[in-house]
């Protein structure tokens, strides 16, 4: 431990989370892109997460405000990016996420698909794949937004099936459409448009779009690392490597370009903050929040011990390490919540944060129930506590 380094206490880390993640009422965001930028990116694997994460950080507005950002203004866009996971980011940040992370994922996706085509033995190759992609784009240009099923109906090539793992125990016959659509999306040539059904649906329509401007990968990684450090610092190389999915070499190169300052934490560990960001963080007013599964404030670090009691982890995470719906009080996870079939938002505390916390949490639960209205939310990744609460 280097006692000469500035100390950032656990309390100050929680102050930072409340203020910088715009969860305290006095610092909530006025726009959806601001709500995304404050945590760099919103998880989008589960359709409802984008909406509920943005809602928790906005001053006002219902689901239609977030739909407008996604599908009309296109000020918020989804990309297959960090950790090969779907995220929603503000449009100005998207080229940096694309160049730093999504490009490498798209290249790997293409190599994998071409390998499968070659192994299938139907003579499908890179030229065939290029033709199938162009036919899909032409169909979108002609008919407008379409689901995967509608694209398959319009493009004969997308109705083909290939065999994976031929001759092996796991041999399977599978359609090509989903893989071609995934590749076009990873390349930024199509994007998700309004789904069929409500905002909770994942049955997206697709639209043809222009790829993001090309940026140098190292420059883009430095930009993304700098933004992440401002949102999540103090944090470590391991935290950034986990969050991005980058190699440790890329993490260290990006951080070197940022030039972070080292600080010490209460447990004696050394962490990093943005250059000059070593001063005390003013405490926000007391605040409570009900955040959805996969919310960035719960998924931003590999080591979450400053805001989560390790004893509570089994109740709040699934077997794969995905966090479920959580209840927060002043920068600490104190419980979990769920929505029952009748629309009631129910919650359970895993500690005793006090009467003021319980009153604030009850108020937030009511506010969330009003916001949801007739919508019903079932997390894609279900956790033990969430299942218990709806049973």
TrEMBL record:
Pfam hit, one: AlkZ-like
Key words of the record: DNA-binding
One MF annotation (Gene Ontology) recorded for this entry: DNA binding
Protein name: Winged helix DNA-binding domain-containing protein
Species assigned in the record: Streptomyces subrutilus
